[in-house]
Amino acid sequence: MKPTILLIAFLSLVTPLHAKQKKKGGGMSPEQKQEQAEKQKEKAEREKTRLAVKEILDAKDKNNDGSLSLDEYLIGETDMEAAKAKFTKINVNGDRYVSRGELEKDLE
Ligand SMILES: [Ca+2]
Ligand SMILES: [Ca+2]
User: How many angstroms is it from 99 CA to the middle of ligand 2?
Assistant: First the structure.
């Protein structure tokens, strides 16, 4: 009987402490959970954008410099006028190339 009583006494001392630690480590407030979920969603979106840009560059970036000239951009496009207009729109800094960053911005 005595060891059992000791064990119960021991557990009653340890359990609240343990529960507290568990709450601190594993339990997040709803706000924190929401924040984490949003961060993960953002991360997934960025990854999706990155992959979409990679796909475009893989298809069009013939000289593999990581950006697209107008000629490269028009590869595979059927509506040249629309594609040219799009190129101008994406090419925010107005140089002759659409960079990876400019493509990513367009897809965001
Ligand atoms: Ca290129
Ligand atoms: Ca540019």
Answer: 5
